[in-house]
Prior knowledge:
Elements: H1 2-12, H2 18-34, H3 41-47, H4 54-61, H5 65-79, H6 84-102, E1 106-111, H7 118-125, E2 129-132, E3 138-142, E4 164-169, E5 172-176, H8 186-202, E6 205-213, H9 220-233, H10 237-240, E7 245-249, H11 255-274, H12 279-292, E8 297-298, H13 306-313, E9 318-319
Parallel strand pairs: 1-5, 1-6, 6-7, 7-8
Antiparallel strand pairs: 2-3, 4-5, 6-9
Amino acid sequence: xxxxxxALHALQRMPVCPQRTALLLEARCGAALQxxxxxxxxxxxxxLQPGDSPQLREAVARSDWSEAHxxxxxxxxxxxxxxxxHALHLASHLQAAAADQIAGKDVIxxxxxxxxxxxxxxxxxxxxxxxxxxxxxxxxxxCTPGLAGVGGAGSLGRQAHCWSAARLKENLYVLDTPGxxxxxxxxxxxxxxxxxVKLLHSAKSVRIVSLVEYSTTGNALHVMHHVLDLAAxxxxxxxxxxxxxxxxxxxxxxKEHHARLEEMLTSRLAAAKDEDWxxxxxxxxxxxxxxxxxxxxxxDFTRSxxxxxxxxxxxxxxxxxxxxFPLHVPPDSQ
Length: 334
C-alpha cells in the first residue's frame, strides 16, 4: 500500500497526458483494492477515458476493485509497457533488508521456485523449531531471534516478497530468495534480477544451494524451468554446477522415495538429450541426477540440521562473485 501511495504522489507531478491518466487510474484502483474504505470513487470515475472498456467502467461502478485494478493494469500496459520509476522503487525495497548484512560477507544463496521451501529451509538450518500443521504446511513454533521477517514473519505458507539474510555464524549469511514463478510483471522481474546481482556482487564469496521440490520432479516443465533459471543466473554453469548443492525438499527419507526420485530425474535427463537441449542445461541435469543417487541431500525438518549444515559449509565458495552472476532478465520482460 505504501508503494502505491508513493506512486500516486510521483504521478501528481507528471505532465497531463494519456499515459499519466492510465498510470493514475491503475494506481488509484490498486490503492482502493488495498484499502476499500478510503477509495474515492468520484475521483476514480473522472480518470476514466472514452476509450476505456465497458467492463472497466462497470467494475468501478460496482466497486469491484480487484477486477478494476486488473483491467486498469491491462489498459495501462498498452500505453506504458514498463514503469521505470516503479522498477527502481521495487529494486530498492527488495534488497533493503539484506544489503547491509551481507556486504563483504560469505553468503549461501538459496535458489529455487516459489513454494520450494526456501524460507522454511532458512528457519530450519538457523535453529527455529518447526511444526507441521493439519494442512501439511510447516509453521514456526519457536522462531530463532532475528528471523521474524523471513517468509512472512511466522506462517511459512506465504511467499517471501523481498531478499532476506539470516546469520548462520560469524561472517556467514544465508540469503533467502523471492520465489521464481516465471510470470511476474516486467518491473518485478527486472527489479528482482537487478537486486539479486547487486546483493551477490557485494558479497565476499557465494555458495550456491538450489532447492528442488520433490513433487515437481515428475513434471518435465517444472524441471526444465528450474534448470534453465539456474543456468541463466550463473555464468559458465557447465563447470560451476559441480559446486552447486542440490537439496531436495518435501521428500521422505526412504529407499522407496529415493528410488522414485532417481527414476524421475533419469527420465528427465534422457528426454533432454533426446530433445537436444543445450550442453549447459544437460550438465546441470546430470549434476542433479548424480546428487539424487545413493544418498541425496534432503531437508528433513524433523531432524537436527547439524549434518546438513556440515554439507553446506563444505561447499566450495565462489570468490569474486561479480565474475559468476550476470544480470539476467526473462525474455518476456526484455
